[in-house]
Amino acid sequence: MATAPWWENAVVYQVYPRSFCDGNGDGTGDLAGLLARLPYLAGLGVDAIWICPWYPSPMADGGYDVADYLDIEPAYGTLHDADELSAAAHDCGLRVLIDIVPNHTSSRHNWFAAALRDEAGARDRYWFRAGRGPGGDAPPNDWASMFGGSAWTRVEDGLWYLHLFAPDQPDLNWQHPQVRSEFERILRFWFDRGVDGFRIDVAHGLEKDPELPDAGPRPAAGLLSITAHPAWDRDAVHEIYRAWRRVADEYTPGRVFVAECWVADNRRLARYLRPDELHTAFQFDLLKAPWRAAELRAVIDDAVAQAQAVGAPPTWVLSNHDTTRVVTRYARSQPDHPVEPHWERARWAAERADLDLGRRRARAAALLQLALPGTAYVYQGDELGLEEIENLPDNARQDPTWRQSGHADVGRDGCRIPLPWSAEHASFGFSPRGATAPPWLPQPAHWAALSVAAQTEDPHSVLALYRAALALRRIYWAGASGAIEWLETPSDTLAFRRGAAQCLVNFAPDSIDIPRGFRVVAASQPDVDRTLPTDAAVWLTPR
Ligand code: NOJ
Question: 322 CB under 6 A from ligand 1?
Fold first, then answer.
């Protein structure tokens, strides 16, 4: 019998390299730092790491502005370091996924430099157009950048170019054969070096309506509010992924693509997962759902049903480098608040965040996520229960969203703060002793108590919970059926069985009884035995 591909039950840990660990003391995370911490990740019990873009980049958008797809950002290390890292990760039993950014290049990429110089044919690889109105002074259409403002910037000779994100991220024209062949070359370059797969940035955005029609009035811009738009989720995009799949299939089995597609629903997402396209895609509904039983059950049912229909694993994302940290999202007493993207936060930021509440729910959510069938993604720092840092000084903010939104949206820096490793010195062990520069974003003083070292000492820490749950997941859930069997429970609670094990989550204000005849093998709160308190979860097996 064929064994399931490794990713079908994997836990993938997301590394944001700039903020993970600084090996050389310049205040920016790097590959040496990541290499040194691989034993931590292997010990945590994850199966794979996904490394956010590590390519040379001016860092206009944290590395999602790639200047050269075939090299490593000098602040992070060298190609040799990347090879060493992949080999060492594999030696630790960790697969390595890297990020590929095909929707746009950096404005410093050679291709765009040639386009700015108007070299013959160079502009055809991007979207250059004349403006509208007298003198062509208005942008060619009404498209908005995801980060705020127009999606068009004018160059010196009067034409405009399209950028769905920052002006430093010009959109590529995927109708151009060189764009297609170049990215297939890039995929092979990294597959040949031994990476196990790619997370595809903005996978739903590569094909635009070539007429570039106006989009018309839309709700607020933002990744999470995708509606019908001539730039997103167009049929033509699938041909690109069929070609990419053929590239992956040239290699030994086990290579995987994970699509970042903010599309309308799981049915649209399924179109990317046809047998000759991508292997998996992020499902973001868990991240978007409020902390309430009914909504979460609906999200789980829909994801599992859709996964079964297409033959891809369901995937579960609680947070990532683009969204408010899970602790902070769950920290408002009103769970009705949409679990907001950053740009909607202003609507309810005035309400006090109860981080103890948020952390308690985040612990329960971790047990829920890790009990579900399919692939689970854990964003760095969520295993420490880090919260969003909402009060960064304005002059520290680096996310282009802050500037492009005219300071209406604080952006995503608050979920990208360098990790605290120890309580010991200036950067909580993010940088080595004697570092020449402070961390690239300031860390809050109280994070000493949330550091890896501090939490390792505490058997009730969030880190201890993750370590235990990841080990127990292999025993109780990894081999269990992909189907969810829901069990009868009181209102505003969830209970399901997979194989012999059960997961029970209590969203209601009062404690509920744990069914007789069962043993608690994991609990999100200490000392859970006969009853399960509010905002807590347990894993149970028959006695
Ligand atoms: C999605 C990435 O996750 C985000 O960080 C980035 O800003 C945009 N794509 C543009 O590349």
Answer: yes
| Atom number in ligand 1 closest to CA 223 | 1
Looking at the structure, tell me whether residues 372 and 290 fall in a common domain.
Answer: yes
| 523 and 419 fall within a common domain | no
Reported confidence tier of residue 350, pLDDT bands at 50, 70, 90: low
**Amino acid 351: pLDDT:** 61
Residue of 168, 202, 232, 262 to test ligand 1 pocket, by largest number of atoms within 8 Å of CB: 202
Q: How many structural domains compose the chain?
A: 3
| Probe target for ligand 1 pocket from 61, 106, 380, with the most ligand atoms within 8 Å of CB | 61
Q: 1: CA distance to ligand 1 center in Å?
A: 39
Residues 410 and 333 in one domain: yes
- Is the minimum distance from the CB of 201 to ligand 1 under 6 angstroms? yes
Rounded average pLDDT over 316-325: 94
List, for residues 222-257, the tens digit of each pLDDT value.
454 456 789 999 999 999 999 999 999 999 999 999
Phi-psi sector, 168: left (phi>0), alpha (psi -120 to 50), beta:
alpha
On whether both 440 and 527 belong to a single domain, the answer is: no
Q: H helices within 141-196, ranges in order? A: 177-192
416 lies in the same domain as 538 = no
**Catalytic residue, candidates 201, 277, 383, 388:** 201
CB 415 within 8 A of CB 162: no
Confidence (pLDDT) at 349: 57
Residue nearest to atom 3 of ligand 1 (CA): 322
Q: What is the pLDDT of residues 391-437, one digit of tens each?
A: 899 999 999 999 988 988 888 999 999 999 998 778 999 999 999 89
Catalytic annotation on 250?
yes
Q: What is the mean pLDDT of residues 507-528?
A: 96
Q: Tokens 């058997």: give the residue.
A: 459
Is 169 inside a domain boundary? no
User: CB-based contacts of 135: which residues, under 8 Å, 6+ apart?
Assistant: none
401 exposure class (CB count in 10 Å sphere: 0-12, 13-18, 19+): buried
Query: What's the gap in Å between 23 CA and the centre of ligand 1?
Result: 25
Range of the domain at 376: 6-105+177-465
CATH number of residue 149's parent domain: 3.90.400.10
Q: Which residue owns the Cα nearest ligand 1 atom 2?
A: 201
Residue 441 in contact with ligand 1 by CB distance below 6 A: no
Query: What pTM did the predictor assign?
Result: 0.96
- Claim to verify: residue 429 and residue 488 sit in the same structural domain: no
Give the closest residue (by CA) to ligand 1 atom 5: 322
**How would residue 334 be classed by pLDDT, with cut points 50, 70 and 90?**
low
Q: Which residues contact 68 (CB under 8 A, 6 or more apart)?
A: 55, 56, 109, 110
CA of 316 to the centre of ligand 1 (A): 18
Residue 357 Cβ contacting ligand 1 at under 6 Å: no
Rounded to the nearest 10°, the torsion over CA 337, 338, 342, 343 is -100
DSSP state of 208: -
